[in-house]
Amino acid sequence: MLKPGDKLGYYKIERILGEGAQAVVYLARNKLLNRDTALKVFKKAPSQESRILKEARIIASLEHQNIVKIYQLENENNIWFLSTEYINGGSISDRIRKNSINLNILIDFAQDMLSGLAHAHNFNIIHNDIKPQNLMIALPREKGQKEVLKLTDFGLASTNNTQEVIGTPLYMAPEIWLKKGASISSDLYAVGACLYH
Asked: Does 153 participate in catalysis according to the annotation?
């Protein structure tokens, strides 16, 4: 695991933003471009190479205001890392813990979530892991602008009706548990579960 001050390519590690089964996400400073990025550093990278490439290519193919932007995918000394835009407002999960989402904001976030998903679905991409931790909030850059919700973590995304049981249990549709395959409807079920949460 990397520590604050460590360097990876052109990036200087600032702090950990989150950790999952497949990767650790850090706040890192790109020294060349002088900007903050979210740096997703994959665990057991050599055995995951095809999955890493798939995730990066999916994100790169989706350009939408409600989907996190990808900057770069790199491999340094067998360490694969993905650089994406840093979303500065935390996740919906963070907001739920702080109990700071009112109904009007929730409606705006729901519209953002559905807009980003509709864009992905137009390209036949199913996210497969919609949950509060993967819904990030971009704070406004100027006075009078609204917060924007962005979809992140396309690590389980698929472009077909996969029969795998994948996702996060609390947000998985019944058909996934029954191994009938994930679909656009499965993502929409997860949206409903997030809104209920």
From this structure: no
Judge whether 80 and 42 are in contact, CB under 8 Å: yes
Q: Are 18 and 25 in contact (CB under 8 A)?
A: yes
**What's the one-letter identity of residue 173?**
A
User: Per-residue b/e over 75-84, b at no fewer than 16 CB within 10 Å?
Assistant: eeeeebbbbb
**Residue from 192, 186, 151 nearest 165 by CA:** 186
CA 83-85-90 angle, 5° bins: 115
Residue 3: count of CB within 10 angstroms of its CB? 9
Share of the chain above pLDDT 70, in %: 96
Q: What is the pLDDT of residues 37-48, one digit of tens each?
A: 999 999 876 667
Of 6, 36, 129, 187, the catalytic one is 129
pLDDT of residue 163: 66
Within 10 Å of residue 178's Cβ, how many Cβ atoms?
Answer: 9
